[in-house]
Amino acid sequence: MRHGGQILSDHLKRRGIRRVFSVPGESFLAALDGLHESGIDNIVCRHEGGAAMMAEAHGKITGQPGIAFVTRGPGATNASSGVHVARQDSTPMILFVGQVARDHRDREAFQEVDFRAMFAPLAKWVAEIDQTDRLPEYLDRAFNVALSGRPGPVVLSLPEDMLSDSADVADAPLPGGRIAPDLTEPAMQAIDWLAEGKRPLVVVGGPHWSSNAAEELGRFAAVQGVPVAVGFRRQDYLDNDHACFAGDLNVGMSPALARRMQEADRLLVIGSRLGDIETRGYSLLKPGSDSPAIFHVHADADEIGRVYPAEMSLVCTAPAFVSALAECPGRGGDWHDWTAQARQDYLDWATPRATPGAIRQEDVISWLSENLPADAILTNGAGNYAAFLHRYFRYKRYGTQLAPTSGSMGYGFPAAISASLEYPGRQVVCLAGDGCFQMTLNEMSTAIQHGATPLVIVMNNGQYGTIRMHQERTYPGRVSGTGLANPDFAALARAYGGHGETVDKQEDFAAAFERARAAALPAVIEVRLDPEAISTTATIADLRASAGGV
Predict the structure, then answer these.
(1) Would you list the domain boundaries of the chain?
(2) What percentage of residues in the chain have a pLDDT greater than 70?
(3) Where are the alpha helices (DSSP H) in 232-333?
């Protein structure tokens, strides 16, 4: 006989889970008890949103479901932000939520929420477990759903009395191996299909990728001589120094790459959903149009043809197909000039353009790109500061970019903590805006407690920069709700027990970074920017002038 919390923790251990993230609650005391002697690290966080984001980041960097435990009501609503990230980023994750006792349901008991209704649009699957002896069944299905097809988050609601009840039930058997299909013929068909075009473009993205897949993508691109564009925040899927790397389809993408996507007559889309960001709000490719021809490869059949009709399609994971493509010989497509120009356009876009100020984001990012180890992991949340990172940093290896395609502010710091725990020997750098960092900086004490050592660079311009940019374009000079009063971030880091530095001159940055790295503590470097430098392409004065403002 085992109580439900023990059955749950035993299942997690059998599935190879080594670490979970939680904010404790009385609604799942039995689960905490089960974890007590399991050998599974329980990372106690300071906010459920941070716990869920750490779990999501763990799922993203390991390929196995990230696990989070939160309590009912406010705990679950706080954690929903991380579930949304996992959904849009196609990340395997399981969120366990404590729930009121079964005989209290439907009375609006203390902190009661109908989680099946609440999480239905956010998760792949939501369930509430009523019987202790069915825990292995539900847990097995949760892992399978989180990992299958297009991966994503699963939410399991755990009534507290169900967890504390005992049952004599066997653990679910571990899943067996799967037979990989032979993709040689479909890969050859894809190469022949590309060869029919004069202006082909390969677009890669989505889940399931690995270091080996990134290497095979590079081999395929080199043999075929075809340009490759990567999806939003998937820049580490191909070495950015590869001769066929054409750039990333991000929020502020290169105008030349945007034109290239419009001019392409063949799009081989591997793993990407080809969504809103990659198509600039569905404007670069018009839904319902038959131009360009699309060959769409995705692990989830429901994603193929969802927005854009595919002339040809294949249901399989991106790495499996890329592996087959890498074995194909060159088929004679003459795209040398097209590919060379795509590469030159990327290099031109990645050449720093000067912005105002005594310290400039483009120079900070260029220094990081040139000086960080090739395996350093960079994380970020959302904000205009990220545009500098995307434009000027060159990713050399897979597994070095950790960022939300959902555009969630506050993500970068929890993700950096998760990455530092998983890879304690690697340099982890979080890029954050002053507004972005303040959403989750309370997790600094989580990092201190559990020995994570991320280095945070806070780009402080005293404003919600992205919204200020849009505000100046639309209502020039009428500033409302975008100014920020900020703390001394370096002093705050020291108050938590970390290392803190403040830099306001370019020549001081490198030495400050080296001191922060040598501290072997969670560290913050506050970079005090000129607020006029609002984006990679414009100042506030430029935006006002173009909008006809003062």
Answers:
(1) 2-167, 184-349, 361-547
(2) 99
(3) 255-263, 318-326
